[in-house]
Amino acid sequence: MLWGGYAGGNTGDELTLAVALRDMRARFGDSVGIISKTPGYTRRQFKDLTVIPYAPTPLMTGAQRTYYRFASRFLHRPVWLYRLAQQRPPNDGGVDWVAAVRASKLLYLVGGGYLTDLFDLDLSLLPALAAKRAGVPIATGPLGIGPFESSGAARKTAATLSGSDLAVRDPGSWQFCSRHGLAPRRAVDDGFRVREVVDFAADLGGRPDRKPRIGVNIIVQFGSRNPERARSWWIDLLRRLAAAPVAIEAFCFHTDVLLDYAEAVECWTAAGLNPAAVRAPELDFRIGCSQLARFDLIVSARFHAVVVGNVLGKVTFGVCDGDYYTRKMRAAAEGFARSQPLDPIATPAELAARRILDAAFAR
């Protein structure tokens, strides 16, 4: 049984799910199921698979929520028992995800960076807690763990992962494990295996008879130190790139039009540029990944866009605002001489544009 941070529209999360599916099918054949918080979307991405809806029973009363907040802060195992006890089979007679986890031979946590309290950590941990309670073994793809604002959240994550076959993808996650008595394996992110699950179109880069083509991916990053300042940096950067003899185009690495797409249109418009250069999101993660082949250079605020760009041999700049994305972009660039993290707070847009353009014309 597979579970992870996918099914929310993030192209990189669907990519890591595809790699996990490949690995688990090699191990278990057709006896593989996926727990999905958006089952219709998952079925669209992956055909002929058992997809089980993930619909955890919410804490309904104010008293329940108060108890759980208190228990989450100060307790561990009792919280697991309490929250699992609240789960009920679906009213429509569908498959009970808790029962499916308990009946499985293995719960496999797909690689990704979802184990942090920047997101809904309870939502992410509950299937693993169900497996742990039932004595079902847990294994993981290469995870990014943390950072955590709450020490209680960090302890709960460590307790959940204890005893699992654990892999982590970056030094920060390794340090977390060391501090909490976990013994992980170090592995690169599964996104680096993109060629195993995506067929790429012909690479359009490297032709001397045209302008360098720069692909730009803009988001407001989780854990940003100053979102408004970062947005202003992007706008200034776009103006400077547009003044050079290059072709710039925005791409999305998320299907939600309120995220990458909306942010790119806003920045493009504020920079005085034509928002027609912002490509619409691609629902199929395979197309979302393969579109990167059209660029010579990629400037992205999404981790897996940088990973895929590096696999394709592109020049990449991974924009990282805050600890969460700094960890990720350093891991994305490791071992790739033409990839570098780019901090929008520490690096003025003028300097960033100069570095990008120098790299574009040095191809």
SS-based class: alpha/beta
Largest sheet: 6 strands, parallel
Arithmetic mean pLDDT: 91
CATH architecture of the largest domain: 3-Layer(aba) Sandwich
SSE sequence, one letter per element: EHEHEHHHEEHEHEHEEHEHHEHEHEH
Q: Could you describe the 3D structure shown?
A:
Helices cover 43% and strands 15% of the residues. The chain contains 14 helices and 13 strands. The strands form three sheets. Strands 1, 4, 5, 6, 7 and 8 form a six-stranded parallel β-sheet that branches. A five-stranded parallel β-sheet has the order 10-9-11-12-13, sandwiched between helices. It has a two-stranded parallel sheet with strand order 2-3. The longest helix is centred in the N-terminal third of the chain and has 18 residues, at 11-28. The radius of gyration is 21 Å and the shape is globular. The N and C termini lie far apart (44 Å). The model has no long low-confidence stretch (mean pLDDT 91).
Secondary structure blueprint with pairings:
Layout: E1 2-3, H1 11-28, E2 33-36, H2 39-45, E3 50-53, H3 62-74, H4 77-85, H5 97-102, E4 107-109, E5 112-115, H6 121-134, E6 138-145, H7 151-161, E7 165-168, H8 171-179, E8 185-186, E9 213-217, H9 227-242, E10 247-250, H10 257-270, H11 285-290, E11 297-300, H12 303-311, E12 315-319, H13 323-333, E13 339-342, H14 349-361
Parallel strand pairs: 1-4, 2-3, 4-6, 5-6, 6-7, 7-8, 9-10, 9-11, 11-12, 12-13
Helix pairs in contact: 4-6, 6-7, 9-14, 12-13
